[in-house]
């Protein structure tokens, strides 16, 4: 049965842990698995800009013995003359998997519904689940177990990153806090899904407008750009609203003394994070960026294994 990875809760807690363990193995022994040997091709499609995702998928697919085919939508028929569903039908006859960075989550749902190869969300307006696999791997490396840790996100609560922290953190049994202005609160259905997952894993969810409450004794302090891709026209309004949610030295001082700071990057120093924090001793952003490679390789290995073993969801 074809498994897809469109949002963080497409993986059960056990599956998420299995992929993180595999990522640790692949980080130790980078060229140990060659499921794409042939080479088989993986299509990696970008409707939006990227540095980390583009590089880590290209390098990771090559590490696995495969051939990455990087497609910019601007230079393809997708989104212009051709639907996502028709594009997927063409690709699936030739590639082992489809990785897509796009705007609407519905596009990913549309192609995965009619496709026989795994589809991976490389960031949509609603979720960035590949980033979360890398983040959880990084937190685990620095803190040991994930379950029971408090992970606090500050800024745009309605963003892809906030939504993914809610779902992936709850899946890992973490206490997830989102501090955001009321008008940028996370989507109610995502919060409800995270709460349901957290009840089963022993985690918890807190959504608040109070950044100090979210920071108190937190183990992991996180922010992201205030102006996600596609929201550039709202920049002035967003900068005005999010000012109180900047992660600065004062806010870090409220967290646990051994708290780490994370940011998926790219970052706007002086806006969502003070330079002294992102470039300071508690920041683990470069490990986080590197771990995109290892986490995504593990995800691809796991998805391809599901294809071959025919495992059910
Ligand atoms: N963090 C992340 O996804 O970075 P890119 O936009 O550079 O891929
Ligand atoms: N929230 C950001 C993440 C970038 C990796 C965006 O969507 O632009």
Name the features.
313 residues; alpha/beta; Rossmann fold; 2 domains; five-stranded parallel beta sheet; four-stranded parallel beta sheet; 12 helices; 9 strands; 43% helix; globular; binds phosphoric acid mono(formamide)ester; binds norvaline; OTCase_ArgI
Task: Explain briefly what this protein structure is.
With 313 residues, the chain is α/β, with parallel strands linked by helices. It has helices spanning 13-28, 52-63, 84-92, 105-113, 129-143, 160-171, 188-201, 211-215, 235-242, 249-254, 275-278, 285-309, and strands at residues 41-46, 67-72, 97-101, 119-121, 150-154, 175-179, 204-208, 220-223, 260-263.
Structural features, described:
The longest helix is centred in the C-terminal third of the chain and has 25 residues, at 285-309. This protein folds into two domains: 8-127 and 292-308, Aspartate/ornithine carbamoyltransferase (Rossmann fold); 131-288, Aspartate/ornithine carbamoyltransferase (Rossmann fold, 3-Layer(aba) Sandwich), CATH 3.40.50. The protein contains twelve helices and nine strands. It has helices spanning 13-28, 52-63, 84-92, 105-113, 129-143, 160-171, 188-201, 211-215, 235-242, 249-254, 275-278, 285-309, and strands at residues 41-46, 67-72, 97-101, 119-121, 150-154, 175-179, 204-208, 220-223, 260-263. The model has no long low-confidence stretch (mean pLDDT 96). 43% of the residues lie in helices and 14% in strands. Helix 1 crosses helix 12 and helix 2 (52-63) packs across helix 12. Phosphoric acid mono(formamide)ester (CP) binds next to helix 2. Pathway: Amino-acid biosynthesis; L-arginine biosynthesis; L-arginine from L-ornithine and carbamoyl phosphate: step 1/3. This is Ornithine carbamoyltransferase. L-ornithine binds at residues 160, 224, 228-229. It catalyses: carbamoyl phosphate + L-ornithine = L-citrulline + phosphate + H(+).
């Amino acid at each position: 049965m074809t498994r897809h990875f469109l949002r963080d809760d497409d993986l059960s807690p056990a599956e998420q842990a299995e992929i993180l363990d595999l990522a640790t193995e692949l980080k130790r022994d980078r060229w140990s698995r060659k499921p794409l040997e042939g080479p088989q091709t993986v299509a990696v499609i970008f409707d939006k800009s990227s540095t980390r995702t583009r590089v880590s998928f290209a390098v990771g697919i090559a590490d696995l013995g495969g051939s990455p085919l990087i497609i910019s939508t601007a230079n393809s028929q997708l989104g212009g003359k051709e639907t996502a569903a028709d594009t997927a039908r063409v690709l699936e006859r030739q590639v082992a998997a489809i990785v897509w960075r796009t705007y609407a989550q519905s596009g990913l749902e549309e192609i995965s519904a009619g496709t026989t190869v795994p589809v991976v969300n490389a960031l949509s307006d609603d979720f960035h689940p590949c980033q979360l696999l890398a983040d959880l791997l990084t937190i685990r490396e620095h803190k040991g177990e994930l379950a029971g840790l408090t992970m606090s996100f500050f800024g745009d609560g309605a963003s892809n990153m906030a939504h993914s922290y809610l779902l992936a953190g709850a899946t890992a049994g973490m206490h997830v806090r989102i501090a955001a202005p009321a008008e940028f609160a996370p989507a109610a259905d995502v919060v409800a899904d995270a709460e349901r997952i957290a009840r089963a894993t022993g985690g918890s969810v807190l959504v608040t407008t109070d950044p100090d409450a979210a920071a108190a004794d937190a183990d992991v302090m996180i922010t992201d750009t205030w102006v996600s891709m596609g929201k550039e026209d709202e920049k002035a309004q967003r900068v005005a609203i999010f000012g109180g949610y900047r992660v600065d030295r004062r806010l870090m001082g409220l967290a646990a003394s051994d708290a780490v700071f994370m940011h998926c990057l790219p970052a706007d120093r002086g806006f969502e994070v003070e330079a002294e924090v992102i470039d300071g001793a508690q920041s683990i952003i470069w490990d986080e960026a590197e771990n995109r490679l290892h986490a995504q390789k593990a995800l691809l290995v796991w998805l391809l294994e599901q294809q071959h073993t025919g495992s059910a969801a």
